[in-house]
Every structure is written in C-alpha cells, then in structure tokens.
Amino acid sequence: MGIETLFGKSWVTARIDDIVNWGRSNSPWPYIFGTACCAIEFMSAASSHFDIARFGAELIRWSPRQADVLIVAGTISYKQAPVLKRIYEQMCEPKWVIAVGACCCTGGMYNNYCTVQGVAEIIPVSMYVPGCPPRAEAIFDAIVKLQGAIAKESVLDRA
Amino acid sequence: MLTLVELLNPLVGGDVVSLEETHGGVYAAANPLKIVGLLTQLRDDARFSFDMLVDIVGVDASGLGGVDRFQVVYILASTAKNFRLSVNVRTSAEKPEIPSVHAVYAVADWLEREVYDQFGIVFIGHPNLKRLLNFKDFVGHPLRKDFPIDGRQKVPESEDLHDEMKVKLERRGRAFSSMRIGEYGGEHGEGEETGDDPFIVNLGPAHPIVHGILRLLLAVEGETIVAAVPELGYLHRGVEKSMESGNYHQVIPYTDRLNYASPMMNNIGYCKAVEKMLGIEISERDALLRVILCELGRIMDHLLCTGPHLVDLGALTPFWYLFQVREKIYDIMEKYSGVRLTYSCVRIGGFPFPLYNGFFDDVESVLKDLMPAIDDVRRLVERNRIFYDRCCKVGAISSAEALRHGFTGPCLRATGYDYDLRKNRPYYSYDTFDFSVVVGTNGDTYDRFFVRVYEMIESAKIIRQAIARYKALSSEPAALEAKKSKGFKKVAPPAGALYDSSEVANGELGYYIVSDGSAKPYRIKVRSPSLCNYSAIESMVEGAMIADLVSIIGSLNVIGGEIDR
C-alpha cells in the first residue's frame, strides 16, 4: 500500500501553488506537433526502449484541447506556421512549448526561403532541445527541466 | 536486339533535335512544341514502350550559356524493355511555355505543377496549374538563379482549397455548398442548405494519420468520400535550393533528411550518382558495405512503415515489437557513425571511417531478432479479421494505373508488377545476390503491407551473403581505400547533366545533377518516390470510407521530407 495508509482520516495543509504544481508538473500530457525527422526520434522516446512514461508524459494527446505541453518536433515551414499557431491557440492554459531539434529552435541547416528561423517567431517557447535530431534522452532532459520550472510557478501567473 | 540509340536515330531531325549517350545514359533534346506528340509516340510505340514518366526536372540554365534560359527534362523509363531516356526541351525567359503532357502520363499533373511553382514555366493545357509546394500567394519562383535563398515570405493563413473542390464536385455533377462546411473547412458561407450536397471536411496537416505534413480537403457523404483535394508542401524546406549553395560533399547531410526513415540509402544514392559523374569506381569492399547498409536501411524503413501503419489502424502492440529491432539498428549505426538517425556516413568515393570491431556480429544479432519480431507481427495480423477487413481490397490500384502514376518500389510491386531496380538495372553487383523480388497480387493495402514485410526477410538474406563476401576479402580497412580515391579531394564533375537512381525502401530515388564544371553543384533535383506514390491518392480514396483513407495513407508510406523536399 502507498502513503495514504499512514495518514488515515486526517488533514493536510499546503500552499495552493505546491498542490497545483505538484499535479501539473508530474503529468505533462504532450501534444506532438511532429513534422519531420525529430518526430521519428520522438517515436523512439515514446516506445518501450526509452519509455517516456517514466516522466509522466506518456499520455500523448492528439487533440490540443487535452494537452498541456506542445512538443514541436521538426522543421516548421512558413506554410505550416499558421497551422502551428492555431494549434497553440487551441490549447487551454496552462500550456508550455518544447521546441525539439535544430530546425525548430533556429531553422537549423535550412537557412532558406521557406523555413521559419525558429518557432519563437510564432509562439512562445519554454524549452529548447538542440540536436539534429536530439536523442531521446535530450527530450527527457527537457521534460524534467520543464517539470522543475513548472514547480516554481505561481498559479496567479496564469490567472 | 537494337539499342535505344539505334531505335531513336530515325527520329532525329524530326521531333528529336539531337541525341547523345553519356555516363551510360541516353539524353535527347527535343522540340518543345512537339513534346506531347513525341512522348505519346515513345509511350505507345511497341519498340520503345516508355510506360513510366520518372520525373520532370526544371533547370534555370542562365548560368550555363545557351540561347534559352530554361530547360525542362522529362526522364522516361521503359519497364518492359529496360530503357531509360532523358528528353530535354528548352524554353525562353520571355515566354516560358511548354505544352502539358498530363494526358500522356498522369503523374505529370503534379510534376508540372512543381516545375511551374519553382521556375515559373507555364504548361499550356494543364487543367490545374497551381503551385504545388509553396503557398499560393508566394511571389517569385525560388529555384530561379536570381531568387535570393533567404527570400522569406510570411503566410497569413492556410489556403481553403475551395476552388479546387468546387471544380471536382462539379465534374461529378455535385454541387458545392458553402453551407455544408465542417468546423475546420473554413468560414460558414452564404446560401441555402439543400441537404443533398456533400459535407466538406478538412483533414490535416495536424492530424496523427497524416504524419503532420499532408493535408486533404474531403467532400463526404456520411462516411464515404465523394471527392478529395490533396495539398502538399507543408514540409517544403527548400532542400534543392540549399543544395546549390554548398559543395558536393556538403549536399550529403541534406540527403539524410529526405527520407529520414532510412537516411543511409539516400546518402548512398547521392554518392553513387556523383561517382558516376566523376567516373569513379568504388572498391569491391565499399560496394559490399554499401549493400549491407542499404539493406539495413530497407529493413529500418519497412519497420517504420509497417509499425505505425498498424498504429494508425489501432493495433499498438506490433509497433513495440518492431520498434525494438529498429532500436538495435540505431545502436549499430550510432556506434559506426556517431549519430542515431542522420548518419551522413558515406562519402563520394567510399566511406569516411572504418568499421568498428564487432560490426558484423551486431548486424547478425539484429537479423536474429528480426525474424521473431516479424513472426510475432504476422501472427497478430495476418489472419486478423479487423486487419483483413480494413486492408483487403482497400485502395486497390492496377499495375497499368500504377505505372501511369509513376509508382515504384513496394507500392508498384504490390500490384503484381515485377520491377525492382536491384534486379532490372543492377548496381553494386546486386544481380549476383540470391534474393527474390516480392510481388503482390491485388495492389491493395494488404498487399502493400505484406510486400514490405517479406522484403525485410529478403533484405536479411542479402545482408548475410554480403557479410560472407566481405569477410572473404583481404583485410585492408575500408576507410583507407576511400581516402586513397580521388573522391576525397575537391569534387568538381565535368560540365554536363546526369540522372542516376537506386532502389530505396519507397521505390526509385533518383538524383538529376547538373554540373557547370565548378565545385558547387549547379542544380540537383531529387526524384522522390513518395511524391509519385502519393500522386494517385485522389483516385484511391474516392468512393472509400474515411477510415480507409487512414489505412491507405499508412500503406503508401509517405515520408514528408521526401515528398515536399
């Protein structure tokens, strides 16, 4: 049995921030906006060998309305940009964005006429993951760091 | 038997202006105004029977000299006679117009749209000459030499595609009613709702089954698709423009990211093309290693096609089984090249580094794990009622129709058509290996799935034979031989053009390379198998259910980096 047996019928007091952030940071449900190679690497992260479930982020949502973290994995072209923006706007607060891969962070090797030079041009980014593509561990590192950042937030910030 | 040049010689002076044989290929120049008649003749004449249009390449030849600024190259293949022919036509900068050949080869519809998009060459008589990759209000034509590489243009919002849908529905005698537009199809318009008109639904590009890059506007009646309008270009990242800005070696990383499911096959295809242009013969050892890497790549790619295809159909378990094997191939390639996915592990002339100790043991252990994984998956799906119902007779296409659409690879072979470049136009002594070409019968989703599954088993056979041959060679390390070859110095192929292709996991991956004699490639066109395999999507999905569409797209294995480039 777990920790609940120790308490019995008692009260626990805590700061609202701590309680809420405890919940938010330990189950960041991701929405994968995967367009290119990084999405293939994300598949590795999600499958059994690396297992993203260890970080509470295994419940991949295919609807932005149910997701907390937007993981942008892959090159974003200008044609794709309005779609990404719309997806971001459809997500409910609180929401965070992880930019996975060089293309997504800065445009990467595609410094040309059709590639957005970093998704920060379109949407606010909480975590950048470098790599082309980043390893699964790098994506996990971003999730863990994001969890740390969420734990420090105040619920009033996003009121 | 007469050679192609001998057969074509009588045409010279008529529709064909000139004819030459270089780099082992036949290159003809033709009169642009006669191109439709010429291609029709080449297709229908039983002596030629050029049944497939492989690619249409645009070239801005302003830096190459000559009177006319633009070139358009039609690359033709005769699968029956095993001929290849490139037909080159030229058109001026003032009036870049060429008659459209969409009636001769169905795949020309999209290929011409791409050339129009990238070069501004107008194809007279094309039914729907819109941009294919860039968005519709884009100003300029990116692959023209005077277009700046960083000429970025913001897109305010996605196109609604209603214009194309209207035409399609009217052609079927159906009305397009703007009242019957679903939530994501656009704004609600004016007009009376009749109730009989099809309902318009948007699918993608942010939908799990379209892998983030494809978009289809569907007109549906209940769940049956009446008409479909596909849109491409969501992952258009200007690869061909970027390739022109570096030297020949610097192109290799871009090829990695074309079909990112099996990067080494793209590396090898590119290096093979440049080597052919330079006249370099790689050593037998390197050729064997390339065969091993190619077949590992084919296994990797097929694992990534079949696994997620089943996930799209709702079967998650097989994906885990298959991905474990893929993960082991990642480990091998990481040990060898230092990277998990984008290897760039091939160089023009050979390989950059030697194999690590134990490479072959690792490969053997992957092959050992592969068979049980395939058997597990086969046991799960082969006679599974749900899988059977969702795949059998779904998205079926005949061999003739597939050839008209330029299908290659597993998608063509699933129709029962035995065509594999490894056997028909062998390279790296593929013809000396003992393996079978897997063919299907019905050309449906079920066949496409199982052609891929059995191809993995054949690839494993090839790898085992190649390893045995490699071990039988003398013990000089591969990398030393590569460094000795001239490919490692400055690469500057002689001026000219060349088309070379290899059989990758999705079909025929080709590179049309134009060199002006300098160390920078003048123009590289990637012949994308995914683009052609996807070009029949409209006819495949019309009349099918939305759920069938999921199954069809999964089985075509459309890879964004390759289709949009």
Question: How would you describe what is shown here?
Answer:
The complex is a heterodimer of chains A (159) and B (565). Helix content of chain A is 35%, strand content 11%. Chain A contains 6 helices and 4 strands; from the N terminus they run H-H-E-H-E-H-E-H-E-H. Chain A has a 4-stranded parallel beta sheet. Chain A has a single domain, classed as Rossmann fold (3-Layer(aba) Sandwich). Chain B has helices spanning 4-8, 35-44, 108-119, 162-171, 239-243, 252-256, 263-278, 284-312, 317-337, 359-381, 385-391, 399-404, 409-413, 421-424, 445-472, 478-484, 529-534, 537-541, 546-556, 560-564; strands at 16-22, 25-30, 52-60, 70-78, 83-91, 97-99, 122-124, 199-203, 215-221, 224-231, 496-504, 507-515, 523-527. Chain B has a 5-stranded mixed beta sheet. The A-B interface holds A 33-37, 39-41, 43-44, 47-49, 62, 74-75, 77-84, 87, 103, 109-115, 117, 132-133, 135 and B 133-135, 142, 147-158, 205-208, 211-213, 233-239, 241-242, 253-254, 257, 260-261, 304, 308, 319-320, 323-324, 326-327, 330, 340-342, 560-561, 564.
Short description:
Helices cover 35% and strands 11% of the residues of chain A. Chain A is an alpha/beta fold and 159 residues long. Chain A has a single domain, classed as Rossmann fold (3-Layer(aba) Sandwich).
Summarize this structure as a short list of keywords or feature phrases.
heterodimer, A: 159 residues, alpha/beta, Rossmann fold, 4-stranded parallel beta sheet, 6 helices, globular, B: 565 residues, Beta Polymerase, domain 2, 2 domains, 5-stranded mixed beta sheet, 20 helices, 39% helix, 16% strand
